[in-house]
Amino acid sequence: MFHPLARALHWLMAILILSMLFIGAGMVASVSERHETLIRIHKPLGIAILILAILRIAIRLRHRPPPLPADLPLWQKIAAYGSHLLLYALMVAMPLIGWAMVSASGEPVMLSASLRLPSILSANPVAFAWLRAAHGYLAYLLFLTVVVHVSAALYHGLIRRDGVLRSMTGPARPDTSG
User: Fold this and answer.
1) What is the phi/psi pair of residue 106, to 5°?
2) Which of 167, 132, 161 is nearest to 71 (CA)?
3) Residues near 86 by beta carbon (within 8 Å), at least 6 away in sequence
4) How deeply is 77 buried, as exposed, middle or buried, from its count of CB atoms within 10 A (0-12, 13-18, 19+)?
5) Tell me: the pLDDT tens digits for 17-54?
6) What are the two backbone dihedrals, phi and then psi, of residue 135, each rounded to the nearest 5 degrees?
């Protein structure tokens, strides 16, 4: 069973990351007045995800996750570990790249009307363009990784019924399917 704080952060971050993906898609698809509103939501949400991701990593290092089922094929174990590493890397990299991108644009990195983050890069149009493209491509990779993660969770919960999904959703319940 995952540590209760790890489970709570998992589900909070799932909501935040899915929200962020849809907000990001809305931002790039819109030139209306909603664009600025979405940006004002996107920036602080990204920093919140960065902080929560660092907290999740610390909790994961302190409270090891439960082992995968012993009968799980090796390739699936490798895929599970690899996809989790990728998710954690993207949860840290995406906000940092976004922060660097805004810094490279030369604009102040504002989280609200009065809260400004320091720039982590000096203004540089070439770096801005590169970071903007990287942020977009990594967003697609994050979306794909989330889809694979959810698919694997459903496979474990609905087909294998091996307790992997239950370890993240709450206390174990006895299987009454017979």
Assistant:
1) 90, -5
2) 161
3) 141, 145
4) middle
5) 999 999 999 988 877 888 889 999 999 999 999 999 99
6) -60, -45
- Which amino acid, residue 161? R
Q: Are 152 and 72 in contact (CB under 8 A)?
A: no
What is residue 178's predicted lDDT score, i.e. its pLDDT? 44
| Cα–Cα distance for residue pair 19/34, rounded to 1 Å | 15
Task: Report the predicted TM-score, pTM, of the whole model to 2 decimal places.
Answer: 0.89
Return mean pLDDT, the chain.
92
| Spatial distance between the Cα atoms of 43 and 84, rounded to a whole number of angstroms | 24
Looking up tokens 């209760």 gives 4
* Residue 94: predicted pLDDT: 97
Cα separation, 94 vs 171, in Å, equals 32
| Residues 7, 168 contacting (CB under 8 angstroms) | yes
User: What token pair was written down for 113?
Assistant: 């009307």
The dihedral built from the CA positions of residue 95, 96, 101 and 104, taken in this order, carries a sign that is positive
